[in-house]
Design brief:
4-stranded antiparallel sheet, mainly beta, about 45% strand
Length: about 130
């Protein structure tokens, strides 16, 4: 069993930056060889939505983003087995949400295909 743990959420003002981190409890190659990782978020009263993720298993490049965060958020990881980060710049009140780390073996980032979720970290952005 793998546990994903996020950190780095908190309070911010519009225009500020925050950096989220996600670490998997297992750093063995069998997990990272089969799962790709990404970020989702769930705003108050709304469904969970995909934010950003790596396109391919084991990738530390080849990232994708939803349109609303392009140019402001950057997903990264130094190595395929290391922690994953989400650098969030120019934050907006509409970025307020619980942010979740996720892992999947699927070629897509469909909610139904996510096999592992973190417990989430709250990001609150005030205007």
């Amino acid at each position: 069993q793998v546990q994903l743990e996020e950190s780095g959420g908190g309070l911010a003002q519009a225009g500020d930056s925050l950096r989220l981190s996600c670490a998997a409890s297992r750093r063995t190659s069998d997990f990272h060889a089969y799962y790709k990782m990404g970020w989702f978020r769930q705003a108050p009263g709304k469904g969970r939505e995909y934010v950003s993720g790596f396109r391919y298993i084991g990738s530390t490049q080849d990232a994708e983003y939803i349109d609303s965060v392009k140019g402001r958020f950057t997903i990264s990881r130094v190595s395929a087995k290391g922690p994953m980060f989400l650098q969030m710049n120019s934050l907006k009140p509409e970025d307020t949400a619980v942010y979740y780390c996720a892992a999947t073996r699927s070629t897509t980032w469909s909610l139904d295909d996510i096999e592992y979720w973190g417990i989430g970290t709250l990001v609150t952005v005030s205007s």
